[in-house]
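hey can u check if this looks right to u? its 457 residues, i copy pasted from the old doc so theres a chance i mangled smth
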Amino acid sequence: MDRPLKLRLTALGAALALLGVSIVVIVLTLQRQAQVVRARLGEVDLESFRIADLFKDKLRYANDKMRRHSTDEDAAAWDEFLKASEDLKGWIENQSSRLTATSEQQLLKQMLLAHQDYAQKARDLHVLMVSDNRPGASVAEFNGFLEPARHLMDLSQELARTHYESRNELLAHTNRTLTELRMSVLGLVGLLFLFGVALAASVYRNLIAPLRIKLVESQAQAQRNEKLASLGLLAAGVAHEIRNPLTAMKTALFLQQKKFQPGSANHNDLEAVEREILRLERIINQFLLFARPAAPELATIAADAPLKEVQALLSPQLTEAGIKLVREESAPLSIKVDAAQIKQVLINLVQNAADSVGRGGTIALRARADRKRLSNGETDVVILEVSDTGKGIPPEVEKRLFDPFFTTKESGTGLGLPIAARIVELNGGALQYQTQLNRGSTFGIVLPQASAETVKC
């Protein structure tokens, strides 16, 4: 047996032994943790009952002494009440060192304030009896003393409940710890199997991890497709119900426009109505395009072909707005896509960039090769990028960037980027972006690279 193989086997044996020891340690820790939790839960339950019962007994004892004093004007009973009242106060203060939760500390402070009111009511009643030289207090006067006593009792019950609820926090913390330990055990057991084969690390990296990611992506895609299917049905119904009255409105509007001279106030009002009707039609069309986009007609084209078309189409109007639209030269690359759909996405991205940069800004178009993970795994890709020198995307907007109907534009529908993402996905790619505040943004259409043998001109 050669030396390198011996070293690998020795390392594998040591790793297996270490994993076995780790599993034993974690299992023992789990058992010890469970025992500690059971004991602590029992203590919390016992303390909760003890808090309620002990305070209730102390308060009832003090109330009884005050009742004797108010009934018989017993001086000894008054002294006993004062001692019982101080005992109550001392008990509350002693709990501050034991009950450390924020909610418990707040309740203890309230109980101290309530005890002050309780003791003051007793002193007021005592002074009233002494000053009037009466044999006892009336029922109404004694009931006035009992009001803060009842408040104290309610607070003690709330304190007991709050302390009992701390067991839930203990359970949650313990469950998290136990879950982490269980996951550690599962991970170590998994590693035992992985170390059982010579190429375990490579198998996990190249097969298991990609399959797991693909499964998550497939589940997310399935959920999204289900939602979009429902949205498609809704879109068709909404579009049908709205388009019919819009068509009738357009017809009636056309007839009304003939009755007024161009430039008149009535004619101008009708033109405003016409613009809003057209805007409604545009929103409906975008809604349908997002919910039920057309299937792409794929053909292999040069990667920079749609960039050239977009530059030729939009350069004149952007130049008038004081915005430079430049295209960087790239190596010959090919993609298999629906050229019209990708062109539509690029136009949308360039228009968004133009809104961000404003006069004096620059928008750059480029195509570059890379290697990325798409829905079918890691592959060679072409990225069509639209970069701008604008103000970037704020974090609060970035969180909802691809949410349907979310927009920061007064006249926007919030469907531009969601539609663009849907089109790119149907073409087998993905839409990505990077942004920095006050530095600009770069949106990239990531598409699988195709062979250049059958490029469509």
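The mean pLDDT is 77.
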